[in-house]
Amino acid sequence: MGGKIFKTLDEQIEILKSKGLIVDDIEEAKEILFRENYFFISGYRHLFMRSIKENRFIEGTTFDELYAMFLFDRKIRNIMFKYLLMVENNIKSIISYTLSKKYGFKEKDYLEPKNFTQDTMKTRQVHDVLNKMKRQIRLNGKQHTATMHYLSNYGYIPMWILVKVLSFGIVSELYCILKIEDQQMIADTYDINVESLTIYLSLLSNFRNLCAHEDILYDHRTQRMIPDNKYHQILEINQTDGEYNFGKNDLYALVIIMKQMLREEEFRELIYELGYEIDVLDGKVEVVPLNAILNKIGFPDNWRDIVDID
To answer: What span, in angstroms and rounded, lies between the C-alpha atoms of 48 and 289?
Structure first.
């Protein structure tokens, strides 16, 4: 099989037109493709295709609609990333406070293996996570401003400073190896059970990395699913074979997580910002009904109603 070869902007336009896409302003389209990358923009074509097998656009689909979907995904990705960083900062603060208060504020104290789960099935996991944390101390100790300050002036790095250089992924793994009583104390802060918070942190880390690397967000699905909860039930989300169709491993699952981990006013702002971008998209895309786009994202038709659920 031959590899992909370079295509000029004119050739890229012709490929899109050969698949039935209407390009009204060729020069503008070429400028967009030059600036944004053909591969990235064409990644949104699936929403506008007649079927999975037929590599043809729905009749009447325009380049402007395709680009509108690209811009929409960028906007909601930036919105979600902003609130993901809020949640990340919150959970890092809560975990560092909990562990520092109980085990001490010097790394030689709070990184003691005895402070973590003694489950023999997780011995290797504890070892791996602690090594990752110690590695971050070695790598960032004399490079990051905050860690360098504490090392230079006090000779140690407190947990509340260390979390600044830990990835969300490592923090998610760290929660998994805590003693059950420590996990419970942290989960109680959000009024969430330990099992749910463990899964939530895994999904948050996944979505956070996706947003940070500007990957396609709107139709992303994670491998893990969040547990069924009252939000699925109260919103009366449709089911297939006993499984909820939305809000399990899609973008709406992330919204459900945010509902439980953001402050009320922050969550209202999130829904408002998402709603604004959805309304803008609705005014720009005609060939695909809005509810079809929402369902592709994982949003039920009544997705905004989650704001008023206690």
So the answer is: 11
